[in-house]
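ok so I'm stuck.
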Amino acid sequence: MKDCNLKEVSRPVQKIADPLTELLRNGARDLIRQAVEAELGAMLSEYEDLKLIDGRQAIVRNGYLPERTIQTGIGDVTVKVPKVRDRSGSGIHFTSYLLPPYLRRTKSIEELIPWLYLKGLSTGDYSEALGSLLGEHAKGLSANTVSRLKSQWLEEHHRWQRQDLSQKRYVYWWADGIYSQVRLDDRLCLLVIIGVREHGHKELVAVSDGYRESSASWEELLTSLRQRGLTHSPKLSAGDGALGFFNALSKVYPDSRHQRCWVHKTANILNKLPKYVQPKVKGALHEIWMASTRKDAYKAFDNTIELFSAKYHKAMECLSKDKEELLAFYDFPAEHWSHIRTTNPIESAFATVRLRTKKCRNCGSRDTTLAMVFKLMESAQKRWIKIRGFNLLTRATVESCVWSKKIRRLVPHRLNYFY
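replied:
not stuck anymore, here's the structure
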């Protein structure tokens, strides 16, 4: 059949899936090329006076190294690094600071890998998850990568546990025992201490595994801190009431005062009460630790005991036996009360740890769990903010306050509690 109405349909031009991302990649490629060329230019200028006997330049350009791909947050970017030739035989070569020889992924991607693992992503899901983020051709993201990282984290934790503490001084401590399921063991008890330096910065003091929250485990940890140079006792140490920590603290750091955590104490008291009366008692307890002065707190404390002792003797006995330790925070600046009357700094920091352990149910061996917790806390530490009224912690500020009649009227009895 000669006549045919069919016409050839031109193939549609293949569109870029994400034109903005492609534009960013091209821009990144050009910027990298310009930056590396600038590095090379600076090097050639440095050796400009180095010449051969016949007057020729000793260091000259000599093409490019093989093209390679760098994994970045916007996907794969291809790069070419120039190289030089040393005619003098001195062994001079060009190494880019921006693109070192073995760089395969940017620092942000290097940090992303452990962060995804620590946030709950299992090693078997890495290829799919990171392929979605970086493109389907992402390489070097197998489970073995995470396994190598875990060994590295464990070594970092060992080094951190041996660091010298002689230059450290803490005003406040929060201590708690965190339990986690681990493989081949029943439960792992992590003994954690977070401290406040004299300039108001919070930092991780200790993360160690122990046998439950026993006195022996806490004493071993505290003795280790003292042997590494931490000889000054914290002025106040807040704990959840486990006898192990406070018993050990009295032996190793006898000058530190004890502060019972109000959140844990409230939970202990409410557990001894019927549900219908719990809101009322909780409100009464709230009046105690939210009182504006020590005098008001003592009055609210006594009123609570008098009001509920007749019907709920066990609950009020649980409250009254720790009266001094529950109200110790009133001897310190009011600006710090919200920080030091509970162990919330540890509880909030360990929210990410619990997320990880719930995701994996049992998250590995004892060493792996310990290293993972250390890295999580180390990462969280970067976002911790100073406590309110931190200027009251420094020696210079405290001494200068003595000269201020206004400050002396406001805090006449607090200045001697720090130094």
